[in-house]
Each structure stands twice: as structure tokens, then as C-alpha cells.
Design a protein that fits this description.
It is a single chain. With 155 residues, the protein is an alpha+beta fold. The chain contains three helices and nine strands, in the order βαββββαβββαβ. It has helices at 15-26, 75-85, 120-130; strands at 7-12, 30-32, 36-39, 48-53, 66-68, 88-96, 101-107, 113-117, 148-151. It starts with 6 loop residues before the first strand and ends with a strand. Residues 138-151 have low confidence and may be disordered.
Length: 155
């Protein structure tokens, strides 16, 4: 037995408008749904993001967060791209500042939070540095002041 995850659903005030944002974020087209819009980054059979109009506005929004990973490039480049599309940075968390690895929590234009973590390329570079064959990087690791998070205040 087992389950396959098919859809992550977000309630929002304007599914079509928010769909444009997420379409640009995921580089995938917006498609129709029965009561919202679908965004399928890897085709219809893969995982989809489904945006529907809020059903119960008196109920607080879910604290569920999408975790996204840049396919290539660098974390900061992707954060810059997303803020250019209308996302807002909430906080930055460093998993290892000395190696440049971290996570950035953002909010989409309607306030739904999501996370972008260091790319696989950045992680591989950090691992190479930590496993340096010459031994000139021995002991390199996260220092106490290099782990944790920074809360970003303001709009």
C-alpha cells in the first residue's frame, strides 16, 4: 500500500490572479479546474498546485508551506526573481552561513508562505568544500552564530 500525493490546494481570494504568480514561479501554464485553476509543473500526471477561492473566510489560513528548490543556479538569484514577481521575504534561515547554505521564507501576493532552499548545485559545492581532499578546509562547519534565522519585519 501507499499513497501518491497529487495536489496541493491553496485557498485564495482570486485564483486567476494568484495563478499568474504561481505560473511564473513554477514556469508552468495555468490550466482550468472544476472550481479553481491548476498549475502542473511537470505535466498533468505529476504533482499539481490547485488554487481555489476561499471557502470559509472566517477560518484562519493553513500554516502549510510549499518547499521549493531551485533547479539550477543560486538561492539568492531565485529569491530576487520571486520578489520581482511580487513575493515578499518573511525571514532568512542559515543552515550553514560559512558555506552559503540557507532557506528563505517568502509570501506570495496573497500572503501564503512558501520556502526556497539552497539549490542542489549550492549544496554539492558546499559538500565538496567540506570534503576537501587537500585538508585545507578541515574543521570548516557551521559556527554558532551562523545557524538560526533572521526575521524580516515590515511589508
Amino acid at each position: 500500500m501507499g499513497l501518491t500525493m497529487r495536489v496541493v490546494e491553496l485557498e485564495c481570494a482570486d485564483p486567476l490572479k494568484l495563478g499568474e504568480f504561481w505560473s511564473a514561479v513554477l514556469d508552468a501554464p495555468v490550466g482550468p479546474g472544476t472550481d479553481g485553476v491548476n498549475i502542473a509543473p511537470r505535466g498533468e500526471q505529476e504533482m499539481r498546485l490547485y488554487l481555489v477561492e476561499e471557502r470559509a473566510t472566517a477560518r484562519p489560513r493553513s500554516r502549510t508551506r510549499l518547499w521549493l528548490n531551485p533547479a539550477q543556479g543560486a538561492l539568492q538569484v531565485e529569491v530576487d526573481r520571486l520578489t520581482g514577481l511580487g513575493a515578499r521575504v518573511i525571514e532568512r534561515r542559515w543552515t550553514n552561513r560559512s558555506c552559503g547554505l540557507g532557506v528563505v521564507v517568502l509570501a506570495d501576493p496573497e500572503g501564503n508562505e512558501f520556502c526556497i532552499e539552497s539549490s542542489d548545485q549550492e549544496v554539492a559545492q558546499a559538500v565538496r568544500r567540506l570534503e576537501d581532499a587537500d585538508g585545507d578546509l578541515d574543521g570548516l562547519g557551521p559556527e554558532p552564530e551562523c545557524t538560526g534565522f533572521v526575521r524580516i519585519d515590515g511589508p
